[in-house]
Amino acid sequence: MTILVTGGAGYIGSHTCVALLEAGYEIAILDSFQNSKPELLKRIKEITGKDFKAYDVDLLDSDGVERVFSECSIDAVIHFAGLKAVGESVANPLHYYHNNIVGTLVLCQTMQKYGVNRLVFSSSATVYGVQETVPLTEDLPLCPASPYGRTKMMIEQILTDICSSDSNWSVALLRYFNPVGAHPSGLIGEDPTGVPNNLLPFVTQVAVGKLNQLSVYGNDYETPDGTGIRDYIHIMDLANGHLKALNWVTLNTGADAFNLGSGTGHSVMQVIKTFEEATGVKISYQAAARRPGDIAISYADPTKAKRLLGWQTERSLLEMCVDAWRWQRNNPNGYQSES
Q1: Which of 36, 169, 190, 193 could form a disulfide with 9 if both were Cys (CB 3.0 to 4.6 A apart)?
Q2: If we measure between CA atoms, which residue out of 242, 199, 219, 168 comes closest to residue 15?
Q3: What are the CA-CA distances from residue 230 to residues 199, 291, 322 (Å)?
């Protein structure tokens, strides 16, 4: 069974490719390498000892996408490819709407042409926006607060409409919470461009000396220690969630949404303290103003994923910190660019 992984050289995509190969699937990777490095392909092969086809193709290039489908016998698709920076989407919404939505339309049109109707979509918990209650369940009304989040919501609707129009289609909409950590080999991990937007890469870059100090955005929330609470999930647990979703779309039809989170919230200060405990490295930090759109508490209700996908998280916050630090320590400057 061959799985096309769009955005397979990205952070979540690369870890999922490792999980797929180790589970016995064949894969083909499609990636434009706008926000990823070709070096990752070598490292996936090094970890798994397996080879695969990889294409330097943008989803907006319909001829390039068709070439991938014509050269590979694709059974199902896991769709990660897309722009993902919330702040950038606010500053340049047209770029985000065009890239994320049109790219998905090109993918789905090509899938339809080649009779491929099994899709696992990389959505996001950002589709929920600001909610009055936690934990967050899949039946809540969606009200994303950024153009990025709205592209995810719109794509979810497009995919649901496709399934409604054609009973042969099956789509799993995976709403992730906060993926962190790295593969235990230390060969692949999160390598953000510039100053990280996410907490743990910011922490590890301070720990390795790449950044001087961590900024804690908001210390006056109505939480036990004043800092925001989020649902963190180990990247390998998240990768395994895609394998479970792939099995679900193989056995079912229609579209359904699933939260992939631990169901437990940890505050920013808890993450810092846990990282210090895991590594023995003290983290210098200072309080900073809240970021627009940030909320006090957000964590998942993952009951549906456990019931229907047979999936749940297995790794602790301590393990997330240990693996993230191993990656950062082994790769202080991230991946080296190679053609």
Answers
A1: 36
A2: 242
A3: 10, 15, 19
Residue pair 75/93 in contact by the 8 Å Cβ criterion:
no
Q: What is the pLDDT of residue 195?
A: 83
Do the beta carbons of residue 19 and residue 50 sit within 8 Å?
Answer: no
> If 0-12 CB within 10 Å is exposed, 13-18 middle and 19+ buried, where does residue 23 land?
middle
Residue 95 covered by a domain = yes
**Residue 147: left (phi > 0), alpha (psi -120 to 50), or beta?**
alpha
Give this prediction's pTM.
Answer: 0.97
Which residues are the active-site residues? 148
- Asked if the structure places residue 162 within a domain, the reply is yes
Q: What are the pLDDT digits (tens) for 266-310?
A: 999 999 999 999 999 999 999 999 987 788 999 999 999 999 999
Residues 316 and 296: their CA atoms lie apart, in Å, by 22
How far, in Å, CA of 266 to CA of 264, rounded? Answer: 7
Report the distance separating Cα 62 and Cα 87, nearest Å: 28
On the CB side of 245, how many CA atoms lie within 13 Å of its CA?
35
> Would 17 be classed as within a structural domain?
yes
Supply the CATH number for residue 164's domain. Answer: 3.40.50.720
Closest CA to 81 of 105, 58, 110: 58
* Domain-located, residue 134: yes
Task: State how many domains the chain has.
Answer: 1
Widest CA span in the chain? 56
- Please give the backbone phi and psi of residue 4, each rounded to the nearest 5 degrees, phi first: -85, 125
- The model's pLDDT over 54-106, given as tens digits with 9 standing for 90+, comes to 999 999 999 999 999 999 999 999 999 999 988 899 999 999 999 999 999 99
Which residues constitute the domain of residue 14?
Answer: 2-180+232-261
Cβ-based neighbours of 35, under 8 Å, separated by 6 or more: 10, 83, 84, 193
